[in-house]
Amino acid sequence: MATKAPLKSLRIKHFRGATKDFSLKFDASKLLTLIYGENGTGKTTIADAFDFVGNAKVGSLENRGLGVLKPYWPTLGQPHTNILVEVAMGAHVWKAQSTSKGVSVTPPDADRPKVEVLRRASILSLVQEAPKEKYDALKPFIDISLAEQAEAALRKQVKESESALNIAANRIAENRETLTRLHQESGSAEASSLVWAQAILQSPPSDPTEVVEKLRLGKTAIETVERMRDSIDSARAESQVAADSLSSAVDSMAKIEAAALAEDAAFERILSAAKDHFAQHPEGDHCPLCESRERVADLADRVSARLAKLKAVTDARNSLGQAQSSAASKQAVFSSAVTRSKQAAVVAREKVQLLAEQWAAMSPGLAAVLDQIAEQGMFDSAAVDVLLGASTSGGALITELEGKKTWYATVKTVYEQYQTNLDKQKVVSQVLPRLNAALFICENERKAFLDAILSSIAQEVGRLYETIHPGEGLNKISLKLDPNKTGSVDLSAQFLSSQDQPPHAYFSESHLDSLGLCIFLALAALREPERTLVVMDDVLGSIDEPHVDRLIEMLYDESKKFRHTLITTHYQPWREKFRWGWLKNGQCEMMELGAWDANTGIATAKLSQAPLIELRQHLSATPPRLQSACATAGVLLEAICDFLTVRYECDVPRKKGRLTLGDLLPKVCEKKLVAALRVEVKGADGSYSEVKIGDKLKALNEMAQLRNIFGCHYADLAHHLPQKDALDFAILVHEVGAALICDDEGWPGSDKSGSYWATRQETRRLHPLKKPS
Fold first, then answer.
1. 721-745: per-residue pLDDT in tens?
2. Residue 193 · residue 185 · CB < 8 Å
3. How far apart are CA 730 and CA 519, in angstroms?
């Protein structure tokens, strides 16, 4: 029967081998579609198109070492964004296109068909690969991802808990070791370091922060006062040097003034002008100023000497001024240093007063020294010693107080860490066994679930395999998880009464292919088969002839489970068996592909009709096509006779090669057999009508030459014989064929009734079962 949403059409554009827009229309009443075509006609492109819509991938390109596959999706020379694949099922049409982020399928409908594609490589993965690869091939069909995630999370938690337990144990040991060391350093007589630590923590020391801060302020102020000694000493020394320089300048000035002429200082300008005159004019015989001739000799030299005496006075007076200024400045610096010393001492006195008792105990003379400095600003080396001693004592007390605080904090921290790690160890010790138990349950449940599924799959595979290979004893298939490995499946089968043998070590290629096909069908039917579109891409090539009919019958039966089954093949015997009606056709639609061409792309070819249907069309033509009808009737009659001689084991010379109608029809028309031959034809209401095909065959035996005259050879006799004779021959063959061959079920080939040959649904019953003796 048809699915609720039958497959209606497929459209492919600029995808793989579809160089042009290509479409296929499907018969909505058929559950199975067979697409026949020679190699290179586009069968894999059609399979990939369904894969593209259903799984957003092109499976035929995978595992071929191509790297990034997207460039190979479109038709050569087309950008990937031009790809369009459409699948119509029921009232829905899904469009798949390639984008920069991958494959986009619209609409993203929940009813989007599941697509399972079987290729030759898939069979190898299911049958011949290593256990890990087998498990990976099975995973898409057995969805236990949530259970695996939960189990992985549990396993991770177990590992983390074990690690946490080890870390806690190590930390506890470290904490105990540290407490023991601190206990020993304390000199306590308490035997237990833990009891000692607990006692310490129960009586915490007062917080020394405020005292330490005041001590630090006092210490800093004392050190500031102590450093003032250097400033005062330096300023005093520099002031003394400046005073000495001033005294020296005074003495020098007195000496120079005594040696200099007593003339008015204004006379210095006249002398300077004379010196300039003598520099320009040599000495004459009279004074240039008074024109006296007396003492004219060496007049210029004496002018220069008197100028020199006057300059020494000026320079000495300048030096004296500088010395006076420097002495005043250095004295001011010294006075400032003394003032700052007093101020620093006052500040220090205030800071020390904050902890007067502590400072008095550490440095009894400190207060007096600071008072003295505050009053005088000056202090000697004895005072410095007091200040240095106080600073050192204050620093030591600060260190002691802070050390006690740090030591207590260390004991507290280590003990609290010990308790924390101990509590964590207890909690983890309680939780870890439960985690391990939960993990054990999860693993066992997963394995039991998978084993149950694998067992059911194996039973189903065995059933399907037995259908194809009945009585060969190879149907005892086993799929088992490897208990010692994660994600590993072993496939084994019985071979020569020996269990658990890997099939690919002993089975033929044909047997392995059919085994892989059976595994795939069993897996595809696991989840929502009514939503699943099964595509098998040219996987029947190595199936040997004796098993083909049973394989095809099995595929017909299994296709009823799925939404649709599509098989591509280049296996010509299937095509011919379909045409001749050796296979039931009721639920199967057959399509044929023509030659592929780069300009036209994938093309469909006109499928050759079954001879019975072809004969019916020739007879129904107006007027009937007599020559074609006779030719087709002759071919069909040969097939009918061949079928009957095989069923009734007639004595025909098969070893001579191709048999003709003259070899076959007389054997069928032997007296006892032809008299017994009859077919019960099932009507639409379920009742049967009987057709005595023996009588019709006997009549055909008498007119068989008409086939050659009208249908196969040129003969003048055909111009003289009535056309009605040719028409009667073709009609009679059609009556025999219509009685014997069911359009849906094909030829009656089953003898399970024990009394007649029948089609699967007994739409035809051929009598007798055995050739009359």
1. 457 777 888 899 999 999 998 877 7
2. no
3. 47
